[in-house]
Amino acid sequence: MFPAKVARAAGTGASVPIECCQICGHAPLENVLSLGYMPPVNQMVPVGELPRQQPWFPTNLLYCAQCELVQLGLAVDPVIIFPPEYPYTSGTTKLLRDNFAELYAEAALMLKLAPRDLVVDIGSNDGTLLAPFIHGGHRALGIEPTDVVKIAAARGIPTLQRYFTPEVAAQVRRQHGPARVVTAANCFAHIEDVHAIVEGILALLAPDGVFISESHYVIGLMDRLQYDTVYHEHLRYYSLGSLANLLRMHGLEVFHARPIPTHGGSIRVYAARSGMRPVSAQVAAMLAAEPRGQAMRARLDAFRKDVMLSKLRLLAMLRELKESGARIAGISAPSRASTLVNYVGLDEAIIDYVCEVPGSLKIGKSIPGTAIPVVEESDLFDDQPDCAIVFSWHIADELAPKLRAKGFRGKLISPLPVPREI
Ligand SMILES: [Zn+2]
Predict the structure, then answer these.
(1) Ligand 1 center to residue 84 CA distance, Å?
(2) Are 213 and 186 in contact (CB under 8 A)?
């Protein structure tokens, strides 16, 4: 039923080109966008360490004309892209904390969650998604492969440090019983063997259980020119149509979906076993609004051209600043900063440093592929460089007033979708 020849990089210690669609097996796939070669975004070399050998991987997007899935052209072994010292923590982003509080409120009401109901979060990171469920009195369990589980444990969020597989799903069900809700926020597009993951979710879910996923939305990605969210963690870029198709292959039906603001534009999608729940009108409306076939190809072509132009525009703006003698810093070092910096070709001669909020595990390390150091935010206010590029430009409206309130006087530049002063 499911494609057998899909690329598997896990266990190779290297990478494998994706030759057929990860969901439906269709080949050949059509090339949408090439960003060149990129270092893994989470291998950040400590500041002061001598440059050492590092792998770089081709970074391109492919389109499946059969199931509409936009996907990465290369699968990289998870041990390379999710190292144990993985420095990403979702709790440091206010937008994510707010989003998960809102997810809990929405899900508890819609699904009428009872106190003893079990909620399992796949890729639970530091437990930010589960925290409101625990405060609401529900049983909760996170599944997370990286050392970030230590932060979750310190916050009192029970977490199993494993990759999610059907075997782990069966083990959790034996120990804790079936799950009323399984969640996967911003990781359902990351895991290589997606059909096994969905089978694992089915094995874990109670008969009336609900799977809730949040994924970056490919239509919003194109609309806001968020090519910087393309990196090797993100194997798939879902539309509602392509995601619903994947779930349908496993007997799951999407019954509710809506856009949410996280990561610059995502979709939250509720699915249950087919026929278990009435399907909301919003689902049909969102599906009808999505481009398909030739219309999708035209959107992708325009996207490719706009990405190229945005690079040239940003370089032109930075050239002017540098010719006038300006010193330039960066604001925040999300994973997407690595894609932008490396695609545009920024380096430590152009950007003096990038600052992060206190507590970020990235402080003291370098932006991948460069020697641009990540420093604590207070350095920016002491130093007052002439301008700063906001790499978290998707939350620039939230960040800019805070930076001003804390005393930053320089220019603030949003690099995308069109480079501009904020
Ligand atoms: Zn496909």
Answers:
(1) 32
(2) no
